[in-house]
Amino acid sequence: MLGLITLLLLLVIILIVILVYFYIHRKLSRFSSTFFGTSDFFEGLAKQKQEFESEPKTPFGMESLLLPELMSDFPFMNVEEIKRLAEENILLYFESISTRSIQNFGNISGKLKEEIMEGIHKAEKNNTSISDIDIHKTVLNSYTKYNGICTIVFQTTLGYQFGFRDSLSHIEDRINTEFIYVYDDTKTSAQDLISLKCPNCGAPIKGLKHKICPYCEAGLIDLAPRTLKFNNLVRK
Length: 236
Ligand SMILES: [Zn+2]
Prior knowledge:
Blueprint: H1 2-36, H2 41-53, H3 63-73, H4 79-99, H5 110-126, E1 129-146, E2 149-164, E3 167-182, H6 224-227, E4 229-235
Antiparallel strand pairs: 1-2, 2-3, 3-4
Helix pairs in contact: 1-2, 4-5
């Protein structure tokens, strides 16, 4: 008798658990189709994440704070021109990924070149495609000097079509591009770096503030775009 009551109680509890499970499941599905346009809750969350990524992003810039120092160190630097260089390098990066072959970046670090090759390899494996790139804005993000090397970082906001295997989606993104410049190569032992040389006589120029070559007196205007090394590219 006691055994029968226990069995019945157990059956009732199991029934309640099953009913509660279906009730919650139905609630979640309904919630999901109302808010995410799909009946699968987790797929809905993934979709929501995607929609978040399609919101345009705000660039994080410190321009008003950093520009005076940068301009005092590089009196002839055309910062707008370096921003275009940053954007051009982002486009070359995407072109490398979509054409599966590394584009001609000019002055690029060996480390970054290797990373891009690896990116191309992954894109090939996952059948990744990138198209319709629309660059919104580029701002100066950081400027630091350490051990004879200047590091200038730009942040660019952009949108593009991203395909992964078979699904295509619009992504709004933020990408940092980092440029380095050796202003005193007596302070660094890195072999990979390029220091400023006079374009006329090839003499090494020490320090940032020379406006003319101390050897041949040629003007040193507008050297920055050719001497800045493209060192890194990071999604933010
Ligand atoms: Zn010279």
